[in-house]
Amino acid sequence: MEQSKQLPPLKLNYKRTFLIGFAFFGILLLWQVYDSWCSPMLTELFQEALGADNPEEVQYLVGMVMALDNLAALIMLPIFGRLSDKTKTPIGKRMPYILVGTLVCSIAFPFIPVAFHYHSLAGLIIVMAIVVFFAMMYRNPAVALMPDITPKPLRSKANGIINIMGYLGGACATFLGMFFVFTNYLTEQEGKESQFNNIWIIMIPFLVASVLMIVSCLVLFFTIKENKLARDLAEELARGEAESETVDKVDDEAPMSKNNKIMLWLILGAEFLWFMADNGIGTFLSNYTIYYLHSDTGSSSLLTIVGGVASVLGFLAGGYLASYIGRKWTIFSGLALTAIGLLVWVICGFAFPPEIPPEGELNPFPFFLYIVWVLKGFGMSLVHVNSYPMVVELCSSKKVGAFTGYYYASSMAAQTITPCLLGLLLLIPSFSFAYLPVYAIAAIGAATLVFAFVKNVTNKKTTIKKGLESIGSED
């Protein structure tokens, strides 16, 4: 014990963590564009194919297609996680998957708006499937890079930085969405077939996303040398293994303990439920804006930016808050804030329902939703910044990819089910987009109930540099 007290405090290398974050930058950039545009594109083409007058009639089909992408991811993420754990190359175990996945994604991504522009529903779905497959190839390895070279006690703070980088990528996509508005493409040159509309309105966000994905990947490749870092940080990582926040000691040579298994399943179960809420909102936000609020999608892009700013603040606070009250209570705080925000949405949404505007006009965007997105963005960032470290805390460095796969399999399972479930609910005459926040708050409540059974394990052994002394890097 005396020897442990004499060890120097652990210090997070902010520069290196920031550079690793370029991987997550590319991931969220891709998915923000994908989620914002693919859902209304599918809605338009399914309406056209089936001759449906009401967009709510085809939401179950939209949800099924979006869910099929996530179902594929549910299978592939654990596979690529395990493969990358066992891969050995001169450039590392994660980097080959990151390079190949990013390259193919960046080439295929701009063909999504091309397929839509030429009214090819089959082409749109096929290109979406290609993008999803290769995005899954690099997503798990890219995320696993952080715990690969970060000691366990520092991972919440590191995850905060990684997520901030990701949200910067999402903000880039959202910023583009404010200028290249999908509703403008649909209404441009009325009286003509939409294939004669200006394709660049929908093409530029996808092209910019592809270019930035390649740039972020190259920055990562030329600045992060996996094999060298694994050798240089072996001692710090071993110390982190010994000082982890788990009920029982993690030992690769022995089966996972019953207590640790229970903890893993509870975390993954709660994660499944809060992603049911979060993804349900994210998948249908554009459609909610267009077909229920009758507002333009540029306003929902601004809403996403407001939520992103709140999320960045939450990511900054989440790691530090966890060092004082523990990861479990930080996540509880985030879930509570999210529930409050959704409750505001439910009350105000039913108190001030939107009216159908005169033809050719759009409703103003409801101001109360900005308050909701601030609370939800800050709250869910406290959740996300601590939940992933809690999962990879339960494994050693040899299985980070596999446990990252479990984490994403849980979230992808939710993202597979929630679009289908919401799409089917929207077929019920009495259920409309107005009930989107009701659905979300029910899922958040269930997540909170499940997470309550997770044991609160706080590390008392590790000394971590705080304040100004934590800033700096060791190369």
Please name the defining characteristics of this protein:
about 475 residues; mainly alpha; Growth Hormone, Chain: A; 17 helices; about 0% strand; globular; disordered N terminus; disordered C terminus
Summarize the structure.
By secondary structure, this protein is mainly alpha-helical.
Draw up the topology in text:
Elements: H1 2-6, H2 14-50, H3 59-86, H4 95-108, H5 111-117, H6 121-148, H7 155-179, H8 182-187, H9 200-223, H10 226-232, H11 234-242, H12 258-293, H13 297-325, H14 327-351, H15 368-392, H16 400-425, H17 436-451
Q: Could you give the order of the helices and strands? A: HHHHHHHHHHHHHHHHH
Instruction: Please state the structural category.
Output: mainly alpha
Q: What's the β-strand tally?
A: 0
Helical amount: over 70%
Could you characterize what this model shows?
- 73% of the residues lie in helices and 0% in strands.
- By secondary structure, the protein is mainly α.
- It has a single domain, classed as Up-down Bundle (Growth Hormone, Chain: A), CATH 1.20.1250.
- Helix 2 crosses helix 7 (155-179) and helix 7 runs antiparallel to helix 13 (297-325).
- The protein is globular, with a radius of gyration of 22 Å.
- 51% of the residues are buried.
